[in-house]
Amino acid sequence: MRRVEVTPYNEQWVLMYEEEAEKLRRIFGRQLIAIHHIGSTAVPGLDAKPIIDIIPVVRDSHDIDSYIQGKETLVKEIEQRALEWHWKNHIS
């Protein structure tokens, strides 16, 4: 059975969201309609799993590949962070 880590609210979660959201804004550009910080880390004062959940809303989700052309470095950075989190929280 996997253990779920819940930590006290951290004011840095808002800053972490903004940092990742800015990367997504650069990736999707004008195709981005909205971006949302969701989940428990988005609720001030709430204890939560320390995972920043983000939903980008784009004009055409069928054309994702064209959004990332020329922005592979940003995409790789986001993927790397996700892999590091997965390794830390699920493998080790």
Q: What can you see in these coordinates?
A:
This protein is of the alpha+beta class and 92 residues long. The chain has a single domain (12-91), classed as 2-Layer Sandwich (Beta Polymerase, domain 2), CATH 3.30.460.10. The chain has 3 helices and 2 strands. The protein starts with 11 loop residues before the first helix and ends with a helix.
Q: Overall 3D geometry?
A: elongated
| Uncertain residue ranges | none
State the order of secondary-structure elements, H for helix, E for strand.
HEEHH
CATH superfamily: Beta Polymerase, domain 2
CATH class: Alpha Beta
| Largest beta-sheet details | 2 strands, antiparallel
Order of strands in the sheet with most strands: 1-2
How far apart the termini lie comes to 14 Å
CATH topology, which one?
A: Beta Polymerase, domain 2
Radius of gyration, CA atoms, in whole angstroms: 15 Å
Total beta strand runs: 2
Helix content: 40-55%
Rounded average pLDDT: 82
Short description:
This is GrpB protein. The chain is built from three helices and two strands, in the order αββαα.
What would the keywords be for this entry?
92 residues, Beta Polymerase, domain 2, two-stranded antiparallel sheet, elongated, 3 helices, alpha+beta
